[in-house]
Amino acid sequence: TGYSLRNVKFLLETFSHVCEHMIWIGNTANKKDDDKYPQTKELMKQWDTATKRMIEAEPTLRDMMTFIEVRRAALRWPHADHIHLDDAWYKKLGNELLIPLIR
Questions:
Q1: What is the pLDDT of residue 3?
Q2: Where are the beta strands (DSSP E) in the chain?
């Protein structure tokens, strides 16, 4: 997660100069672990935890970020593939959660 986290930090710090507030949506979760895929429930949890800790440790980011954890909710939603959820999930997330936040 170290390399990936550096990329996330770079991205957020770059956007922080042009965004008043940013929303980070955590990772979805696979319904069941499958040896064919690198994403596991535990790894998704570790990535989310590492990202949250990095945001909390950076005062500039902490003050301008909202982190939305969706991993547990994703366990109960229909999946389009191993890790991605169906289109209805993303539509619902946008219409019911994100749009009201940015109004």
A1: 65
A2: 22-25, 65-68
